[in-house]
Amino acid sequence: MNLAVIGTGYVGLVTGTCFAETGNNVTCVDIDVNKVERLRKGEITIFEPGLDVLFERNSKQGRLKFTTDLNEAVASAQIIFLALPTPPGEDGSADLSYIMGVAKQLSHLIKDYKIIIDKSTVPVGTAERVHAIIAENTSETLFDVVSNPEFLREGVAVDDFMKPDRVVIGTTSERARKVMKQLYEPFVRQGNPIYFMDERSAEMTKYAANSYLATRISFMNEIANLCEKVNANVDMVRMGMGSDSRIGKRFLFPGVGYGGSCFPKDVQALARTATDFDYDFRILNAVMGVNDQQRYTLAEKIKAYFGQDLRGHTIGIWGLAFKPNTDDIREAPALYIIESLLAAGAKVKAFDPEAMNNIQRYFGDQIELCKDQYEVLIDADALAIVTEWSLFRTPSFQVMKELMKQDVIFDGRNLYDLEAMAEHGFHYHSIGRESVGKKAMQYEKDI
Ligand code: UDX
């Protein structure tokens, strides 16, 4: 099949590349001339494990092309994916100007039957709005608009795309349904379902899924905070809870709050939709409130330990990306933690295996970027672990102790065993577990 994917951001590039991999001819369109030039030269513009191999193979074999010419891409495609940004507007609602702008252009370009697919996360009712705009200049018999939300996690997006738990397709058109089934069949050979539903339910499904996952995280963060007060261990609680098959083990990890380009934006947008429809979605407001606080939890622990004024203190940071295996720092808890530490007068040194360039652009020379995780520790009064990169799971504790000025660790991801940390002689503070180490005990009594 011939596909056009409009927007070569994260979702567009993964979508286009993976559809090319199953034998479709895909033309990706973007208005950014430089980006298209780089992609044409074979240079991949995002970091996503496994994508480079597919990108190279399909580009070389001519199934994956890039252009700035929307007209040309649309003329040859029967299926047109919209993978455009929907940034939050000032009131929290998703800004649909990119999508509506492209829909307007499409309305002048459609000459034979096409399926226009909303891949971006868009509020309920968007498919209908896109339909209405295209219908201003095109006969309704010449197109269908389908909602087909993505459920890709950064870092494992290729796997999520190639072997999805489910595919959700919102369309009431029989003609579009047949084409979509054919397009997605190669991805669900192992028997996972394709759910067909109306457009509004498909749009709602995406927000409901992301908001529910964010709710689980905020819930566990509150359980962890309470565990600290009642002297319980959240890791034990998590395992005890998660082995109930009604609850499940995944997505129950407390930490430094959820970040990234999806959860914060989508929870906010769903709350906004609720308000627009005169519904007070109380749980979502609590989920956001808990997350806003949790993002500062490591910085607060550090200040509780050393005092509010951190001048003269050096804090090392391990991990800047919002999660491992990505260079993405959008809404990353590290940003909030570092800002809070800098505001308190601390000197901040940091290392991340992938996100250094992005963080450099964000903080400039306000923080010192180090070449590896050990350089961060030289003369550090404390280490704060923000992202759970595998690299940080089994460090040499001996070397760490030799390099650090004080043996203090604030672990936002519960990477280490409490007993082991006590044996190594660290003052070790984590999330939802007792602090270990001599001074830690004193500090616990004080707060
Ligand atoms: C998410 C959804 O998982 C995906 O389906 C959707 O399409 C886009 O949004 P992503 O943002 O890539 O994907 O990351 P995810 O792995 O879901 O993690 C989101 C955030 O939640 C991260 O900041 C992560 O650290 C945090 N998280 C996740 C926790 O704090 N605890 C957990 O148990 C799981």
From TrEMBL:
It is an enzyme of class 1 (oxidoreductase). InterPro entries: 6-PGluconate_DH-like_C_sf, NAD(P)-bd_dom_sf, UDP-Glc/GDP-Man, UDP-Glc/GDP-Man_DH_C, UDP-Glc/GDP-Man_DH_C_sf, UDP-Glc/GDP-Man_DH_dimer, UDP-Glc/GDP-Man_DH_N, UDPglc_DH_bac. GO terms for molecular function: NAD binding; UDP-glucose 6-dehydrogenase activity. Keywords: NAD, Oxidoreductase. Pathway: Nucleotide-sugar biosynthesis; UDP-alpha-D-glucuronate biosynthesis; UDP-alpha-D-glucuronate from UDP-alpha-D-glucose: step 1/1. One of its GO terms (biological process) is polysaccharide biosynthetic process. Its EC number is 1.1.1.22. The active site is at C262. This is UDP-glucose 6-dehydrogenase. It comes from Haliscomenobacter hydrossis (strain ATCC 27775 / DSM 1100 / LMG 10767 / O). The lineage of its organism: Bacteria, Pseudomonadati, Bacteroidota, Saprospiria, Saprospirales.
